[in-house]
Write a structure and sequence with these properties.
single chain; 482 residues; alpha+beta; Butyryl-CoA Dehydrogenase, subunit A, domain 2; Butyryl-CoA Dehydrogenase, subunit A, domain 3; 4-stranded mixed β-sheet; 14 strands; globular; binds flavin-adenine dinucleotide
């Protein structure tokens, strides 16, 4: 399996616009060093057999367990463990590691027949790409949301018909696409991009109803990254999250990019565009990965809050314990629902074992409230301790300032360095630009909050809940005696 240096060496030329520069070789750019080093560590970890992140594919090769199609609960549990191990390497702060879109591809390949329902049969493309992903340990990012230009209009109603990525030309050997899509998290440091559109399209939008895979270095493909959060920081000690886990997000622009037919999954089919996500387990596997990661992150935030309380000597105050109790509830609810969705999963007619969507989407409908709440509790318990810190570690080392640091920024339960280290870490989760981006990420990565609540609504089985109400109400009438 791929090692960290295999990954780094295979990152070919691309066109990434950032801070007024065009970066073609991301491996030599300070903007991406932190995340590339983190991904290298992840690949080194998964390629080492002793870490038990490998599986034997049905076609006889070895692959990353996070890409596996589970056929029973045991397989789903093995996948869970592998995803959790990778998530723990960033404590859940790398959201779009290769296992996210890899999980979507495992879902597509679980029920490839769906892709034969369009005007052209594409199941072979789906299977071939899935096997290639597994065998070559490919890092795919995805971009499946149209740019925010005017949400009141359908794609084809906008005055410029190529704002959202769309068909320009159909050729014998493939298609040419033009337009944009937001966002490609991790796209700048990935190998390839999966491009599609998950919000439902309507009649007249056929030219936007496309799904395809494209190498990040494809001619005409441009990435415009938001500002980087890590590279200008003084040290890992001062910004332990920003400096290592800033995945980058980018607007993706297609300037007449050619896509060969072999890389197309859906072509001009509005219904199939939805079916690929929801009639295969792609959306479920992808979000199961995301919930396993979120559970790791919330447990970490709970641990941090407890350490802050201990460090400040507030850990015996009833109100503080209640706050920690609330964090414990949030963390346990997400982790427990994830386990419940897996334990009550089922084998589908196409042979894959799939988590129960009711318990998967249930907590996702609350994610826009619970993540900000968890961060809010950590904020509340930290007070101004996160700002009562020197600007960098240098004040701890400088003989002129060290004594003040030791006297005034210490803790009666820990040495100065440990206290500053803890509070710098907390700041990078509650207050830095990186922290703000994570708040936005957890609220939006699976769609805007109203979209996530609709997933919860659709998968709850309201018919059976209403039937219960009906049955209960049938038990008495106007004249039932007390
Ligand atoms: C940090 C981050 C990383 C991301 N990474 C990726 C990625 O890697 N790949 C990718 O494809 N996407 C990514 N996304 C995009 C993400 O999928 C979108 O943010 C999400 O789908 C919501 O779309 P939007 O941001 O355009 O919000 P909009 O759809 O424009 O909604 C914004 C707000 O407008 C209101 N609103 C709009 N429409 C309605 C409606 N019909 N009903 C009720 N209220 C409405 C709501 O208040 C809503 O919260 C990322 C987003 C973030 C924040």
């Amino acid at each position: 399996m791929r090692t960290g240096s295999d990954y780094e060496n295979s990152l070919g030329n691309r066109k990434v616009y950032i801070n007024g520069e065009v970066v073609t070789d991301v491996t030599k750019s300070p903007y991406f060093k932190g995340i590339i080093d983190t991904l290298k560590k992840m690949y080194d970890y998964s390629s080492d057999p002793k870490n038990q992140m490998q599986f034997k594919t049905p076609w006889g090769t070895t692959g990353n367990r996070t890409f596996m199609i589970p056929h029973d609960l045991n397989g789903l549990n093995e996948r869970h463990q592998a995803i959790a191990k990778w998530a723990e390497m960033s404590m859940g702060f790398v959201g779009r590691s290769p296992d996210h879109v890899g999980s979507f591809f495992a879902g597509f390949a679980s029920n490839p027949a769906v892709f034969d329902r369009g005007a052209k049969p594409f199941s072979e493309n789906v299977i071939r790409h899935y096997r290639r992903l597994v065998d070559s340990d490919i890092y795919l990012s995805y971009s499946i949301i149209p740019p925010q230009v005017d949400r009141s209009k359908k794609a084809h109603e906008l005055p410029d018909s190529h704002i959202q990525v769309s068909l320009v030309e159909e050729r014998q050997d493939g298609i040419v696409v033009r337009g944009s899509q937001m966002l490609g998290t991790g796209a700048a440091v990935a190998d390839e991009l999966f491009v599609s559109c998950i919000p439902p399209l309507g009649e007249g939008d056929e030219n936007y109803a496309l799904s395809f895979v494209v190498p990040i270095g494809a001619r005409g493909l441009k990435l415009y990254c938001r500002p980087p959060y890590g590279f200008y920081r003084t040290s890992v000690f001062d910004y332990p999250m920003s400096t290592r886990f800033d995945e980058s997000d980018a607007i993706v622009v297609f300037d007449d990019v050619f896509i060969p037919w072999s890389d197309v999954f859906v072509f001009r089919d509005v219904k199939l565009l939805q079916a690929q996500f929801f009639e295969t387990p792609a959306h479920i596997y992808g979000n199961n990965q995301a919930q396993i990661r979120l559970a790791v992150k919330l447990r970490f935030i709970a641990g941090l809050a407890a350490k802050v309380a201990k460090m400040n000597g507030t850990d015996r105050i009833q109100g503080v314990l209640e706050r920690l109790g609330e964090l414990a509830s949030i963390s346990s609810m997400v982790e427990g629902m994830c386990i419940a969705s897996e334990a009550s999963g089922s084998k589908r007619e196409y042979g894959a074992f799939v988590p129960n969507p009711r318990y998967l989407y249930g907590p996702m409908g609350l994610q826009a409230e619970i993540y900000p709440r968890a961060v809010g509790i950590l904020k509340e318990l930290s007070g101004a301790g996160v700002l009562q810190l020197p600007s960098t570690f240098m004040e701890i080392e400088n003989p002129e300032t060290r004594e003040d640091m030791e006297r005034y920024v210490g803790s009666s339960s820990a040495d100065t360095v440990s206290r500053i280290k803890l509070f710098r870490l907390v700041w990078d989760i509650i207050g830095s630009e990186f922290a703000g981006r994570h708040l936005q990420y957890e609220m939006f990565y699976a769609g805007a909050p109203y979209v996530s609540r609709m997933y919860a609504y659709r998968n709850f089985d309201y018919n059976s809940a209403m039937a219960d109400v009906e049955r209960f109400m049938q038990e008495y009438d106007l004249h039932t005696s007390i």
